[in-house]
Design brief:
This protein is 33% helix and 24% strand. By secondary structure, the protein is of the alpha+beta class.
């Protein structure tokens, strides 16, 4: 990573200049904060990515045309209810939520975005939401990023925040972010709810490029359970509060900006995996020397989403056969007598030669660790990729077996 990137200890979504946030308890959940508001002090450009689920939630349908215009400066979030599969009434609720929040901030309605997360198929508790909006607006502060990060959590156990400084063209800029997510994590374009901010001046078209590049190898490379949400939303705001000329592709400062955005996205994405529902392991799945990029990614995802592999990780069972089986079922070009498999540095399969007793003992030690890497070498080409995943534990089954009860 470039020396121009400096991580901010305790940094988050309000670390960049000109952003304020707030988190409150509006009574949507029991004994915890459950609504958040993030806003820029000045007009801002915005870009976003959304779920490709064919059953998108009402907030996604509300936000997409607004984000497409390239200008937005605030987002309001509720937990406890996804406002998904709620038909036309749900869309009206999303619009009412956004319009009311915009009025409370004194900004145009088209500059206010809406996000929801929680149970699918239930209407929002609009009385509590509308009562909470004035409190959110009044409570906005530059130090409110952490409160907002706590307020957007669902089954998460910890808030997820990150921020960096970077230098470009003689100025210091900042990129910050927060996200939520622990379950129903398997992306296509984006995953969970992610909010990124910067005080650099960047056009909407340039932001779109940055957010896609950053997401490709962060939020598009994680999985907890293979299920994609109806509400997935990633938003990146740029308000220019740090001054200076606009950062754009091909111009001075663009590579530094892109590196900063990508670094924050990767940090947040990995925090999601580490806090996966019931997770006891953080596993990096790496595939090398694949014939094509698509083959490398397909093999990675087949391993990372395999329930058999994930349960073996939980139990520390040295059953590497589940890895090669997943690769063979992925559609990637591969052959038994060409493939190598490593757990960290332990080779468990070498082109048809299976692990001996000593290697299996070493494998058991690797799998007992909190974090390890599974590396598959296909020896079919020069392409590589990596995906981050978790194990499946008893707690994961408990959480999702009782989610609505």
């Amino acid at each position: 990573m470039s020396i121009s990137i400096q991580w901010i200890t305790g940094g988050g979504v309000t670390s960049p200049k000109g952003y304020k946030a707030c988190g409150i308890a509006a009574g949507l959940k029991v004994d915890r904060t459950d609504m958040a508001l993030l806003a820029s002090d000045r007009p801002a450009h915005c870009a976003g990515l959304f779920t490709s689920n064919n059953v998108p939630a009402a907030p996604v349908l509300y936000d997409k045309p607004l984000v497409a215009k390239g200008k937005a400066r605030a987002v309001i979030v509720n937990v406890g209810c996804a406002n998904a599969c709620t038909g036309e009434p749900g869309r009206r609720d999303a619009a009412c939520m956004g319009e009311t929040a915009a009025k409370a901030l004194g900004i145009p309605a088209e500059e206010m975005l809406v996000c929801s997360t929680g149970t699918i198929g239930r209407r929002l508790a609009m009385d509590r939401i509308l009562a909470g909006i004035p409190r959110l607006a009044e409570g906005l502060s530059a130090g409110g990023g952490s409160d907002a990060a706590w307020a957007i959590l669902t089954t998460d156990t910890v808030p997820k925040q990150a921020a960096v400084h970077f230098e470009a063209n003689g100025r210091v800029y900042t990129v910050g972010g927060m996200c939520k997510g622990a379950g129903m994590i398997c992306p296509n374009l984006a995953t969970t709810l992610i909010f990124l901010t910067t005080d650099a001046k960047v056009s909407a078209s340039a932001l779109r490029k940055a957010v896609k590049i950053g997401a490709e190898h962060s939020f598009n490379r994680i999985t907890v359970d293979g299920d994609q949400s109806t509400n997935d939303t990633l938003l990146l705001f740029a308000n220019g509060a740090a001054g200076g000329s606009a950062l754009a592709p091909g111009k001075p400062g663009w590579s530094e900006f892109l590196e900063a955005v990508s670094a924050v996205q990767l940090s947040l994405a990995q925090q999601i995996v580490r806090d996966g529902e019931g997770a006891t392991k953080f596993v990096t799945v790496s595939v090398e020397k694949a014939a094509t990029p698509a083959d490398a990614l397909a093999a990675c995802r087949a391993i990372a989403n395999s329930p058999l592999f994930k349960t073996a990780c939980f139990g520390g069972d040295p059953n590497w056969g589940r890895v090669i089986s997943a690769v063979g079922n992925s559609g990637a070009k591969c052959a038994e007598l060409e493939t190598e498999i490593y757990f960290d540095k332990v080779c468990v399969f070498d082109k048809g030669v299976v692990a001996d007793e000593q290697a299996n003992e070493a494998l058991s030690s690797v799998m007992a660790q909190r974090a390890f890497t599974v590396r598959v070498v296909l020896n079919r080409g020069t392409c590589a990729d990596a995906v981050y995943t978790t194990d499946f534990s008893y707690e994961y089954v408990k959480i999702n077996g009782e989610y609505t009860t």
